[in-house]
What we know:
- The protein is of the alpha/beta class.
- The protein has three domains: about 5-105, 3-Layer(aba) Sandwich (Cobalt-precorrin-4 Transmethylase, domain 1), CATH 3.40.1010; about 110-220, 2-Layer Sandwich (Methyltransferase, Cobalt-precorrin-4 Transmethylase, Domain 2); about 225-405, Rossmann fold.
- The chain has 13 helices and 19 strands.
- Strands 13-12-11-14-15-19-16 form a seven-stranded mixed beta sheet, with helices on both faces.
- Strand 11, helix 9 (about 270-275) and strand 12 form a beta-alpha-beta unit.
- The chain is globular.
- The two termini are about 40 Å apart.
Amino acid sequence: MLDRLEVVGIPAGGWPELGESARQVITAAGVLIGGRRHLDLVRDQLSPDVPEVPWPSPLRPALPGLLETWSGHRIVVLASGDPLVSGIGSTLIELLGSDAVRIHPAVSSVALARARLGWPSDEVRTVSAVGRDLDLVRRHLAPAQKLVVLSAGADTPVAVAELLTDAGYGPSALTVLGDLGSEQEGRWDFTASEACGGYQVDFPSLNIVAVHCCARVAARARLGSVPGLPDDAYDHDGQLTKRDLRASALSRLAPVPGELLWDLGAGAGSIAIEWSRTDPRCRAVAVEQEPVRSARVAANAARLGVPGLEVVTAAAYEALDRLPAPDAVFVGGGATLDLLDRCWSRLPIGGRLVAHAVTIETEQVLIQAWQAYGGELTRISVERLEPLGRLHGWTPVRPVVQWAATA
Length: 407
């Protein structure tokens, strides 16, 4: 049985910058676990009898066994700055629970970066590239937006610059802050376009990338945070829930942070992607049986800033039993009553189900589902202005029947 773990945040300056209470926790350790850099910063203050254990790699799968090995010892974990800012403290609490972990924070690198730049916390989005896909940055790009990117290493600043340029934000200002809080602290300022044009700097491995997005971008690069992105934001072969229908469906699916969506017959993945974009904690599984389309869903998700979207290549019927229970389900087309029954049976109280029908046969299925489970049936017709000779006229789009219900 593990006793409560102590997690101590280490400032860049090491032992001299630690408070007395944090020093007492470290010197009382029965075993010290941390990165090699952190262990080096405090080694001179420790008894030679105290074991020093560097983190294994990969970390997460080995963590339970490592902690069990030292069960019965007073375990002290060393981390950088604030251990709850994309740090090991968050991982340990997720694994063990908050009652089993005590955090002793130092000033985080994010706070130091904001202090150097004079950026108030409520104006800044923080994104971690440590052990994560850098495409996560794309979700937060917006004119004049300020971002702090936690770097994975010396190559991250140029990778961020390349991503910004690819997304249409090339004129954005970048500031790289290296070795924050130490005597070796450095600063480099440039634009994303300059970095892609041969800007040569050997950045330190410990760095933060601050991004001030340019205020003016092309219309295609300006993607809002609410559902209903332009249809041309997606690569697709025609199997796409169009913008107006997508906005209507997502308003009824009602994304809530931490909840899981099934997008069955995902096509281009637009419903799952825009569900995931509403909040970093929203999760989605896109099920698509065509391999080419499922690959397209993954590519669309990465380009639109949600690379963590899970894509399952299978028919919806085959996938249902092995998927975790959803909080909401979207069926974009080809629904059968059996499929809707199975989805309904997996929903918790308050779960939402939305299905669309284009054909009269599927419309009849949705009417049967409405009769069985209630909810609302809506027939949505959209007309778009298009050229008509030398003039213009309204061209109707094929109407869609939408069934939406709450369990």
